[in-house]
Specification:
The chain contains nine helices and five strands. By secondary structure, the protein is an alpha/beta fold. Strands 2-1-3-4-5 form a five-stranded parallel beta sheet, sandwiched between helices. Strand 4, helix 4 and strand 5 form a beta-alpha-beta unit. The longest helix is centred in the middle third of the chain and has 33 residues.
Length: 208
């Protein structure tokens, strides 16, 4: 049985004492931790394929944590962020949370509050990774369909019957039945309802 990977908690804070304290706390509960003094160091050295989250100081040299959050989003990086700051205010916290941050903690904070936020962030990342893996798997199955089978699938998920699909694509009902069976087999769908859910996750557009 393959063991689940140990999650990694990244820490970006320009204060050495804070970095070490958070790293020690994270490692004390069996998680991996990597600490960086700047956002650029994090970008240059981060290579994580396992579930992860980022503890980010709001006040950083050269680029604020909020600006760094925006930069990460613009590059397509999807990592749950927990903000920590000694100089926070309500507008700042609202901006961070609206941009997708998991939590906004004001220093000094309770160790348990940070650990709770880390668990929440890691669960969010695990769920996102599972969803991405599922969509990737569906895309691979969809690529196995022929052009005609994709056409039939698009019509099946709209609720059309074989007879209606046959009329729509100018084919015999028997041919449609064969294509439909191939679609169900290749997509590994047990029912039309399941196929509809797959099409929704693949964001297939209805045939016009």
């Amino acid at each position: 049985m393959k063991l689940a990977p140990v999650p990694t908690v990244f820490i970006v804070d320009d204060d050495l004492g804070t970095r070490r304290a958070i790293q020690d706390l994270v490692e004390s509960v069996g998680l991996r931790a990597q600490a960086f003094a700047t956002g650029q160091e994090f970008l240059d050295r981060r290579h994580a394929s396992e579930p992860s989250c980022l503890i980010l100081d709001v006040r950083l040299p050269r680029m604020s944590g909020l600006d760094f959050q925006r930069q990460l989003a613009e590059t397509g990086a999807q990592i749950p962020i927990i903000f920590v700051t000694a100089h926070g205010d309500i507008p700042m916290s609202v901006r961070a949370l609206k941009s997708g941050a998991v939590e906004f903690l004001t220093k000094p904070f309770r160790d348990q509050d940070l650990l709770d936020a880390i668990q929440q962030a890691l669960q969010r990342d695990i769920a996102a990774r599972e969803q991405q893996a599922e969509i990737h798997n569906l895309q691979e199955r969809y690529q196995l369909l022929t052009a005609r089978e994709r056409e039939v699938m698009t019509l099946v998920v709209t609720g059309m019957l074989n007879k209606q699909i046959a009329s729509e694509i100018s084919a015999s009902e028997g041919t449609v039945k064969i294509h439909r069976g191939q679609v169900m087999r290749k997509m590994q769908a047990e029912s039309v309802v399941e196929l509809v859910r797959m099409a929704d996750k693949l964001r297939l557009s209805p045939r016009k």
